[in-house]
Amino acid sequence: GQQVMQIPQYQHVQEGEDFTTYCNSSTTLSNIQWYKQRPGGHPVFLIQLVKSGEVKKQKRLTFQFGEAKKNSSLHITATQTTDVGTYFCARVSGSARQLTFGSGTQLTVLP
Amino acid sequence: DTGVSQDPRHKITKRGQNVTFRCDPISEHNRLYWYRQTLGQGPEFLTYFQNEAQLEKSRLLSDRFSAERPKGSFSTLEIQRTEQGDSAMYLCASSLVGAETQYFGPGTRLLVL
Question: Which of A85, A90, B78, B89: disulfide with B107, CB 3.0–4.6 Å?
Answer without folding.
Answer: B89
